[in-house]
Specification:
The complex is a heterodimer. By secondary structure, chain A is α/β, with parallel strands linked by helices. Chain A has 5 helices and 7 strands. Chain B has 2 domains: 78 residues, Helicase, Ruva Protein, domain 3 (Orthogonal Bundle); 46 residues, no CATH class. The chains are: A alpha/beta, B mainly alpha. The interface between A and B is medium-sized, with 19 and 15 residues.
């Protein structure tokens, strides 16, 4: 082994380790990768928020690219995200909601006050569907493709930035896929 | 002012620790579910919300729901392995405090042993080289001369 290699090795090792740790600093440990990505959306059948007697199921997603947004009135970040959902709905994005561990009256009032971007809301009082979807913090937004497969999950509130750079390009790409 | 603050803090701490201790919901362990098995299992599962707590320790609403889920699965006669598989399918390996051994975690599990092996190799090589140097530092002639110069016997020192 040439001499300079032997002297450089510790430096190289140090730089590699420093790089690794630096990368670690910018990772958010709160973001847990979902094992559900690229898997069929978990089946569910829940009453509608607005009409308790009618059921909604995962089959509503089939055929079209859909957002499935998990929200609750007790969730502060959901309030922050809500205007962006309204904008998306106006642009023609199909959004279904999962009203998660909430109170029906409070949730209905919320939609009256702030507007309703959802095609329909499933009412998950006990949070079991939430568990099946691996929800661990509201808001969460799943992107479901035409075949009913989960393609992406955004944890935490949507931002105009994540919508522009992450969500809309993906939706466009998924629209072009076959159903 | 200071004393009042300390008192307030002490009161709050007392109240909240009481609430924490009372937090674990009372499940019925008279039927299918063995309490020790249940407690052992939830201690091995991570709470997704407060990530450095196990399901057994966490007060988060989700932890509460997941404990209920674990209890119900056990009540249905599911094994520990099946309960874990149920949670991993939804939340990923992250719910397990002990990451499973698989290609993406080989570094984690075997890395330390690899480092140890490398360290031992380096140590062995260094030791070998040192003992060699001690042997062949001087040729036989040089050693003879050294003896002449220094004197064969060490001077006695009192």
């Amino acid at each position: 082994m040439p001499r300079f290699v032997r002297y450089l090795a510790p430096l190289v090792a140090f730089v590699a380790l420093a790089g690794l740790l630096y990368k670690g600093l910018s990772l958010d440990p709160k973001l847990v990768p979902s094992p559900l990505i690229d898997k069929p959306a978990p089946a569910f059948s829940l009453p509608l928020l607005q009409h308790p007697d009618t059921q909604i199921s995962d089959s509503n997603f089939r055929g079209e690219v859909t957002l499935f947004n998990v929200w609750a009135t007790w969730c502060v970040a959901c309030r922050q995200e809500h205007p962006l959902l309204m904008q998306l709905a106006k642009q023609g994005v199909r959004i279904y909601g999962l009203n998660y561990k909430d109170e029906r009256a409070a949730a209905k009032r919320w939609l009256q006050m702030f507007g309703d971007p959802y095609l329909a809301n499933a009412f998950d009082a006990e949070g079991r569907t939430g568990i099946d979807w691996g929800v661990y913090g509201t808001p969460e937004t799943f992107v479901v493709d035409k075949k009913g497969v989960i393609r992406h999950k955004i944890i935490g509130p949507l931002t105009s930035d994540s919508i522009q750079h992450e969500l809309l390009p993906l939706l466009k790409q998924l629209q072009e896929e076959d159903g | 002012m200071m004393i009042r603050r300390v008192l307030l803090l002490a009161t709050l701490l007392t109240v909240f620790s009481g609430a924490m201790a009372a937090g674990l919901e009372a499940f019925d362990f008279s039927g299918n579910v063995n309490e020790d098995r249940y407690k052992n299992l939830i201690a091995q599962l991570r709470c997704l919300v407060c990530q450095n707590q196990s399901l057994a320790d966490s007060e988060a609403a989700l932890a509460h729901d997941l404990r209920r889920e674990v209890w119900e699965l056990m009540d249905q006669g599911k094994s520990d392995k099946e309960v874990k598989a149920f949670l991993v399918a939804r939340y990923g390996d992250f719910v397990l405090y002990n990451p499973p051994v698989k290609p993406s975690t080989y570094i984690l599990w075997y890395g330390p042993f690899a480092l140890l092996a490398i360290g031992l190799l380096v140590l062995l090589r260094t030791l070998k080289r040192r003992s060699k140097q001690a042997d062949s530092g001087f040729s036989t002639e040089e050693q003879e001369r050294l003896k002449q110069v220094l004197g064969t016997e060490k001077p006695d020192k009192e």
